[in-house]
Design goal:
The chain is built from 17 helices and 17 strands. With 548 residues, the protein is an alpha/beta fold. The longest helix is centred in the middle third of the chain and has 18 residues, at 306-323.
Amino acid sequence: MADLSSRNPDWWRQAVIYQVYPRSFADADGDGLGDLRGITRRLGHLATLGVDALWLSPFYPSELADGGYDVADHRDVDPRLGTLDDFDALVAEAHRLGLKVVVDLVPNHTSHLHPWFQEALRAGPGSAARERYVFRRGRGAHGELPPSDWQSVFGGSAWHRVPDGEWYLHLFAAEQPDLNWDNEEVRADFRTTLRFWSDRGVDGFRVDVAHGLAKDLTEPLRDLGDIGAAGETALLRVPPGDHPHWDRDEVHEIYRDWRKVFDAYRPPRSAVAEAWVPGPRRALYARPDELGQAFNFEYLQAPWDAARLRRVITEELATARAAGAAATWVLSNHDVVRHASRLVLPPGTDPDAWLLSGGHAPAIDTAAGLRRARAATLLMLALPGSSYLYQGEELGLPEVADLPVEVLQDPIWEQTGHVRKGRDGCRVPLPWTTGGPSYGFGPGGAWLPQPASFAAYAVEAQSGVAGSTLELYRTALRLRRKLLGGEELEWTPGCPERVLDFRRGEGWRCVANLGTEAVAVPPGEVLLSSAPLPEDGGLPPDTTVWLA
């Protein structure tokens, strides 16, 4: 069993970390918005589930122009979500229950309401205040054109003009001005932020847009032409490390500096990079003298296909090994369609078009989606490395694809001219009970409407029920702690084409049938299966089994 004690510096290497989206987890005060006290009251659920840590998505002061990732103060709590005292109480209770606490850090940008940005607007062109951000004069006879053709991830130009005629850079929403990481004041302030939360007992950090901090701001700014705004495809069209604002080589100086801060604590603080970059480049962020880990999004993006998943798994283990890091695995998060729905979308389906149809074109079989999601989870939890779970997946929640457009909160909806519906469907508040105005989320309603079908998925409906998805997760996580060994796996030779079959050390074998026909179950004691096994001993399609 892995040592996850409070003094173990490597607790994160094979941990199971549960992502909490605070506004959608639990509401203690009845205003319809999840809060820190609500999370604290529900921490027993995570302890019973068997996870090792919780990761808190942003809880900082924010006007919610991007779901909390527009941060107005990196060292405080949004008053709608609580206070610093509430945060301290949450950390204390988590630690009492044996849970680590990881917090989201958003270093690429601030909110336009941040005191620094407001000062920059008042101070005007050429001021020291503007040097903390990326302000430039526009092109054209009167500066009426953006300084470059860079595009926002959310659509449209990445530049916004202010009344005095200058433009500022925002790679995301206009309410999220990018910081200038060439500025030493910015770097020093984030070192202070790292220490602020570490001193309050935080065990680690998830670094948002980790590949976006360093930028080539040499004049004249380089246009991108048809390279594209974001994503690995754009990065493959330029020499490694040479995109003007994504994954530049200079970004690693920042994280080597951060590592000195992390290592000043005992045990050292952990970190994981959200870096949407190709595998060999991702390994750089995960080096021991930088962040130590980076999310492997190829696994999340892979279709339900044995050959593709085997290749992704093999490559991720090799990438992690080369970096001296631990592999990471994730199936869902706050930015993507939940995997209980995504994994049964026909190959080639455009998720944005599917969401625009309200989940009707094509219609999906929710029972088949849940079966496949359960199989995918057992497969993931058997892999060496860290597994990241997203709140509600332990209940088998599907995507809420039919949210009415009038309730949407994600800025993507408006910024894309109603072309992309956005990410609200995976952020609908959790159901805890089978009744009540918000199924136990809080004493009142919820900030996004929950479908009536959520009652059947509630914690209350599944707890103690043999065969439920919640009990499957609890059993799997309990067994996983007992079975963990080294960080290697051995593929079993000669297995059927659509089957993934591997061994973990002594006495643990995982077999996943991703095909359409049943296959024979190898010899051994069945420890756990994602679906009931027939009496004839076969392994049905879309089923994973753990064997001793």
